[in-house]
Sequence to fold (303 residues):
Amino acid sequence: MYLGAHIGIAGGLAEAPAVGRGIGCEAIQIFSKSPQMWAGPAFSPEAVEGFRVAVRREGLKATAVHHGYLANLASPKAVGLKRSRAALLDELGRAEQLGVDAIIVHPGAHLGSGVEAGVRKVAESLNEVFAKTEGFRVMTLLENMAGQGSTLGSQFRELAEIRDGVDARDRVGVAIDTCHTFAAGHDFRSDSDYGSLLDRIESELGLERVRAFHFNDAKGPLGSHRDRHENIGKGEIGLEGFRHFVNDRRWQDRPAYLETPVTGDDYEAYRTDLATLRSLVEKQAARSRGVPVRARTSRPGSA
Fold:
């Protein structure tokens, strides 16, 4: 597993890879613009090249852009939906320019229209945007959510249903956030619970669809539906939950990005969290932990 973190770009795009590597990251996630903006200013060619060169120079194994917070691809409101689709189109273009591996996207909230309608809107949104970005190599990863309010994606089957509604399914994967998973009611702290979680992901979604992780401990208890991140080992998940993930060979080529609390811009808390995660890696980490997953049950329309 490639351990990394979310790194700010206030010092410039080209600085983020070095900052990440300096605190021990093998992978970095960034915002390509303020997450409170619908669209960002155009990149200069120098900024794009500087970022790409820095990623290669620092030897990063994986990179991602996290989509902004304003977009709601499930919105039942025409104006909001139009702006959200335009925002994703803009963000995908920026991610493609930067050459990152993936853009991580919150599915959205149905706002009272119902889960079925919301899932359909997200799939339609992705189809519209993908039709305008044919040939893009950047993956779009749907992030699982904590389940607060009408937010979609706290259940893996909802993410699977969104993907099943997308024409270009090979462009869609999933990012698993440990805090969101726990807050949604999926326990993985014991060996048996971790095995059961993977069985559920395999049967409802497919383990191969999981392309990245957000590693965050949780302030709230199991099933709280509270999206409150905590530093590794200091929350309700605890060290054992993360020990399962970092020692599971099925994730050996997947990035895991920290989004844990930090103070200021020195990222010392990230440095500590990365060291904590690495201390959990066993000498023979090639072996898989947990209960072996059962054979996946195919779903209609799955690719």
